[in-house]
Each structure stands twice: as C-alpha cells, then as structure tokens.
Amino acid sequence: MKNTTLTTSWGAPVGDNQNSMTAGSRGPTLLQDVHLLEKLAHFNRERVPERVVHAKGAGAHGYFEVTNDVSAYTKAAFLSEKGKRTPLFVRFSTVAGENGSADTVRDPRGFAVKFYTEEGNYDIVGNNTPVFFIRDAIKFPDFIHTQKRHPVTHLKNPDAVWDFWSLSPESLHQVTILMSDRGIPATLRHMHGFGSHTFKWVNAEGTGYWIKYHFKTEQGVKNLSPELAAQIAGENPDYHTEDLFNAIEAGDFPAWKLYVQIMPLEDADTYRFDPFDVTKVWSQKDYPLIEVGRMVLDRNPENYFAEVEQATFSPGTLVPGVEVSPDKMLQGRLFAYADAHRYRVGANHNALPINRPKCPVHHHQRDGQMRPDSNGGGSVYYEPNSFGGPAEAPQHKPAPYEVNGLADSTPYDENDHYTQAGDLYRLLSVEERARLVQNIARAMKPVTRDDIKQRQIEHFYKADPEYGTAVAEALGLPVPAAAK
C-alpha cells in the first residue's frame, strides 16, 4: 500500500509526528508547535462525557502527615514541619478501559493525589509505575488510539497495540513492567504509586533540586495471576472499587509512605540517563529515597459522581516550592489535563466542592457555564487595578532555569531504550521471567502479522538476548538476524 502524507486537520503536511518542537533537545516545549496543540486539543474532545483515559476509577479522602523535615529542599508550606497534616483526595483508575470495564485487567493504574494546602491545591498525577510508554506528548493521542477499539469491528486491536510499541522502542521499559507480575495489582491498596515525571523543588533561599516522587504501600505489594484476574473480572468486575470502599468502611485504613529522590540541578547535564526522560528511572544507588511523609485514606466519598467522577487533577496544579521540569511528556500534560477538564466537566470545574481549594481564592476569572459560586460578586475583575483588588506576588514567581539550543522538533539526546529494560529483566527471578514471557506471548499471539511480532522480538533481544529468545520461542518464531 502506498503511503500518504500525514497532514494537519487543515491539510498542511506534517514534517515530524514523533517529536514536539522544543528549545534544544531537552526542552522545554514551545507553544508555537501548533501541530502538537492541535493533536492534544482534538484528542481531549474525542469522548463525551467519559474521561478519554482513566475512565474507570475509585476514590477516597484522607490526610498527609509530614514525617521528615524537607524544608532544606522545598519552601512548600504543607511540607514545612514534621507532624503537619494536610487533607487530601485520591483517585485510582485503570487507563485504557471504559467506565464499565473490569478492574482486574492488565493495565497501568492511575494514582492521582490532590492535596488541599493552605497555599492552594497541589496535584501529583501519576501511575503505579515509575515510567511511561512514551516520552513526548505529541505521541500520546496515537498511543491511546492503539489501546482503544477498532473503528470497524469495535474490538480491541492487538495489531495496533504491538505495531505501535514495536515502532516506538522507548516503550520497552514500561511494556516489560506491564507484562510482569506487577501488571495486575491484587487491590488498589497493594500497589505503589509514582509521580513518574521529574519535578523541581525550590527552597526558601531559591535553590532548586530535581526530584521524583515514590509512594510505597504499607500493605505490601500483591498481584494477581492472569487466571485469577480473569475469573474475578467475570464474577466481580468492580472488585478493586469494592475492596477499597469496604476496607475504609471497616476501619482498615490504607496507607503509603511518600519518599523522594533528590538530584542537584547540575547533575542533569552529566547523569548517564537523561533525568527528564519519563521512560527512564534514576538509580536509587545514585539518588537514595528520602522519606517525606505518610498518606492515609480514612473516609469514603458520600456521593460517587460528585466526588470521584467530578474530581479533576492536573500536573500543572502547583504550589510555591514545587515547579516543573522540561520533561516533554510533562510539558504536554500541563496543557492537556486542564484542557480535558474544561471540556469534560466545564470551565468552572475547579469551583466544584471536590476540586475547590480549602484556602481563600482570589482571581479574575468570571462567568462560564455552570458557575457554582458567587462569581466574584462585585469585586474587582481585572489586574492591574487601582482599587485594591488581588494582585501578583513577585516572591512566588517560579525560579528561572537555563534553556539553550535551536527551536526544533528533536528527540532527547539519549536514545538507549534497552539498558533499563534489560536490567529490569535480569532483576526478576527465573519464575518471574517465565511468567513475563508467558504474558507477552499470550498478548502477542492474536497479532496477525509476523513482521510486527519479529520487530518487537528484536527489541526484547536487544534488552537481553535471553529475553528476546524466550519470547521468540514462545511465539514459534525465529529471532530476527538483525537483532543479533
């Protein structure tokens, strides 16, 4: 079949659909990349009114208590002293399935936390995995399309899933995690959570640090076998939702310890992996986990729709002392998540009770559909003004960081997609490796084209020859000569 030229919705040819336009190879992303903005904006409007991703979810209220003084690294008020408690709301979710899908499918789990701090809300919007399938937001709509249904059959499409992954080798690390035992958590209480992206903490003196978040479950990590997961999916598709609700109702409050990895800013230029690439992790030998606090969930929602369904999270919901990094996937999410909520819930989604900050709010945003509050009353509605209205506070301006390079759509400088996936494979026990290969083979057998299978086998082989050979044998295919 002859290839046709990919175009924008208005017919202009697209020169690069793999990399967003950034200031230098590391970023940040440029607003002038109209192709990226069009893809993300259109993608956010493809489903009504269900979330495009993370549609099936469960949530609970709780609190966060600081257990270690981290004020040397961040001026965030809610982390300012040991013993301080902050109310929060958490939403867990599957990623690809619809609102009525089963809880026990093989899928990453969303792990979103909303802290109601005295300086405004702060959202950590991550997953139960420390990495992701792609590292540039321009590929996100295409990736999620492969996880959805075929436009003709309306069935899940393994050809699309593995075709995309095999053509996107950066996905290998996350694919290995997904196909391992960790791909199906036993319950929402028995899994870790991660911020996944790199963020920046800034202290009171203005010194910055790159950081990564790790929520470690106090219940221990437990997973389901594919056979038991399939049985539960048929008998009780809402198993995880029910388990979380019943545990809290019974007073068995689930808890997680929050840790961070901290990297000096200058290390970003010399570390052996690009620290802003969300398909990579930082070695804990290089940057050990530092305890921050403890999250406890102790109250169920009173109304699922009002709280869980209408809850909106965005990695761009920040407080002083927490800033973003030039991570390209994060940069795209800063726009896409808030834009999705404006479309799905409405322009005033952040004024709903579940999303509304618990501190005073003063801004000049007015009107819009379904305004649930006083709409600012008769207060000043613009800035700058001469009438004592809300004004900017320069002391809270984000700390600057240096950018350089050409405005171009270039990938990250580091293109090693295999080392960390191979390291993960070699960390697994013999039994865990066997189950990993079995899960991969089960998922890949429905793929109708052998060239897609062999292209993916080549990636497994490059991560570890044993890994690739085992998958090839399970599929009854040879290891491609190019892999060797």
From TrEMBL:
The keyword Heme applies. Transmembrane segments: none annotated. It holds the Pfam family Catalase. Its EC number is 1.11.1.6. One of its GO terms (molecular function) is catalase activity. The keyword Heme applies. Gene3D superfamilies: Catalase core domain. It is an enzyme of class 1 (oxidoreductase). Residues 7-391 form the Catalase core domain. InterPro entries: Catalase, Catalase_3, Catalase_AS, Catalase_clade1/3, Catalase_core, Catalase_haem_BS, Catalase_immune_responsive, Catalase_sf. Residues 1-23 have a biased composition (Polar residues). Keywords: Heme, Hydrogen peroxide, Iron, Metal-binding, Oxidoreductase, Peroxidase. It catalyses: 2 H2O2 = O2 + 2 H2O. Residues 1-25 are annotated as: Disordered. PANTHER family: CATALASE. Belongs to the catalase family. This is Catalase. It comes from Fictibacillus iocasae. The gene is katA.
